[in-house]
Fold these 3 entries.
Entry 1:
Amino acid sequence: MSTPVEGGGTLSKLVPAGIALIFIGVLLIFIGVFYSIIRSGGKGEYGGVVVIGPFPIVFGSGGGAVKIAVIGAIILMILALVIMLLPLLLARGGTVAWKP
């Protein structure tokens, strides 16, 4: 029995491409951080969000970074809600009726 990885199929070509894209993404993040530090004269701001369950914890060093982190957290929470409710919304649009 041959799997796509053993047979040299598409999956064996997509894995190195995915690893390369992850590496390029991390490299772009580092370049962006260094560029913003240089542009601001050595005074960089930081901000981030840690999501534990449905509760976001926002932290940061300056007002601008915290605002961006809060906006990003809200967008990610809305996106997660839509993805979780998508099967229910698709089922309601069809012939399947939801009964409590």
Entry 2:
Amino acid sequence: MDKATTSQLKGIAILSMLWLHLFSSGDLTATLANTVYFYNGAPLATVMKKICSMCVPVYIFLGGYGLAVTHERAVAQGRRMRNWRRVLSLYANLWTVFLFFYPLGLAFNPQLFNTGIYDAALNLTGLKCSMNGAWWFLLPYAILTLLSDRILKLIYSAGVKHEILMLVPVFMLYAGAYVAVDSVNPDHSGTAGLVVINVLRIFMLLFMFMAGVMFARHRLIEKLRSRLTSRYSYGRINVTAACTAAVLLFIKLCIGASSLIHPWFVMILIPLYAVCKRPAWADRMFEYFGRHSTNMWLIHYFFVHYIFGNAIYSLRYPVVIWIVLVAVSLVSSYIVGFVYAPIRRLVRQERPVISR
């Protein structure tokens, strides 16, 4: 899977995340002009959250996939990966966003943002996410990135059977962590409780991260594409993939939004997207949003909950509301990106280290 396809999938994921955070509340969505309903009479805008809630597993899968590709390239070039630079770059991005939006938060939601230094520090590390709920997986993902060297070496040194066996306890950890973290309120937990919650969240992400690494290691998507294109035309591949994806998404709409079922859908839907030949305009559009996905992830929640509040729902039509949020998040991404770009270049500067 090439870099462009990965970026497109990130673009789809961030657009899904914005929809999820706008319409996950049934009470708010019930007040909108819902002109489209699901077969059971529920507003489609709300039901769509069952699909959009797969956005984080998509990100984590792509993160594991991308780090595996980078690892292979680093080994081939005889250099070590500097994952601490990736993490520092991510946090520099977070802190740049915080500098812009903390004053806005004080203006629009002073009760929440007028907090003590210690609480602000917990938010700036990602240990606590009271100022922006969308940051909940930042610290766990950062820790996974720092540990990725060991995870990658473990996976790449194992045989196929051992890899599959390895995934069984990891999935059990994932399921157990999902149940455990769902019963804890992070807003009412002390520092020790926040540490426990973030450890559980690491286990929640680990399964998809390792799945992404394994897909990259064994070139599963590339092999699938090669096998299909050698036997069938792109027209037939596109129709089959589109119909399969439509059936899967309809099933997902019917069975719920539980995180326990996300991985299986993600591991099928991503290859289906990758093997298709899409219109050039669609690739360009999704890739464009993919380039802004990190900033939009870090930014959009401020608008949804702390700046716009319920006022954005006065626009009444879900698609219009979503487009407005996408637009303001995108404009904000350009502003933040202008300030962050030189910082990123400084942080991500890497010199190859030749192994001896």
Entry 3:
Amino acid sequence: MEEKKYEAIVEAILFTMGESVELERIAKTLELDTERTKKIIEHLMQRYEDDGVGVKIMELDGSYQMCTKGEMYEYLVKIAKQPKKHVLTDVLLETLSIIAYKQPITKAEIEKIRGVSCDHAVNKLVEYNLVCELGRLDAPGRPLLFGTTEEFLRSFGVQSIDELPVLSPVQVEEFKQEAEAEMHMKLDI
């Protein structure tokens, strides 16, 4: 079979599935090895970038998904009559950051880091499909473990959690000093 036919099949799979599809599943469907399949997908991804079309193919942690390019958002809003926009407050961002960097993590561990209850924040993040339950910890009470989702990866434009920025110890110390200074200012008021 020629490359164009394989690309058409990949395109049909990704369009029809609507969600991400693992490289191995695509390769099995094409009856090709994963290396050749990946090259076909990468060529197709490049074509979408070059052709100036409104969609693209994203790689998400070893899976691929067809999605709309960001610059098309304003037109989608016009036709969809304002889709529900999720607002990430400071509390939600802080909780999401903890989950992203420490996953899998329990609510108790998040609360220990934040120093306050996180039930509402975690529930909102699950509702927004940025966080999901990954199972249960093998410990007394069997608490739920939480981690990030593919929607998190899409929303923050990374292919895997390994691409999240790493803070140096110096930056961590600076953040601690800023937080302490801010707390002192609030207490003085």
